[in-house]
Amino acid sequence: MPDLLFADAELAALYDAMNPGRDDYDFYRPMVMAAHAVLDVGCGTGSMLHQARDAGHGGRLCGLDPAPGMLAQARRRDDVEWVLGDLSSVGWDAEFDLVVMTGHAFQVLVEDDELRDALASIHAALKPGGRFAFETRNPSARAWEAWESEVRSAFAGPHGESVQVSRKVTTPFNGRVVSFSHTFQSAAWDQSRVSHSTLRFIGKADLDAELARAGLRPEAQFGDWDESSLTETSPEIITIARRI
Prior knowledge:
By secondary structure, the chain is of the alpha/beta class. The protein is built from 6 helices and 11 strands. α1 crosses α4. It is globular, with a radius of gyration of 18 Å.
């Protein structure tokens, strides 16, 4: 469940090509490798779990994602457990040592009830003492301001084609959420493709309160992938919380 919910197979095939370097993967990988049973919520194309298996992880690796196109990419390998759905459609009971959400997937939990139900499901899925690791953009850093003017870039698609992408805010930040679209075009295609997203920005105080409500205690929080301290201007709120 990355920022862009690439629901169909054609868009999903673009995701890894568009995101070739992942600082979040580098941060989470040691925790994944140290845990016997790992659940990746919003696993997308499954690339982090693929990498963990390639690096020698011998335990249970499970990826959960609501987008059939994303899981179609992930299921090209069968050495990981893949589940189509979201946290509202599963019922794991104390099965995982670690739950992770990468790619700012936490921000797609827009409504309070949705967020609380998800945290309750994560708490239930964790073994006692298990950890939940995730990140959300720090609202104090006001990342949406950089998205308000149309941004264009290009990258090489999965078949070597040149793909142009433009991002545009469709609903400005309202103090809680922002909506935007990505439009993809290539001379090799017969038509452009569009992905839409809405993300929530939640501050540290409200986030910590929601975690406590769910029985999850933050034991570490960082402001960026270099493990720098969380400050008012940090771009991220990276949290490692433990099931109480």
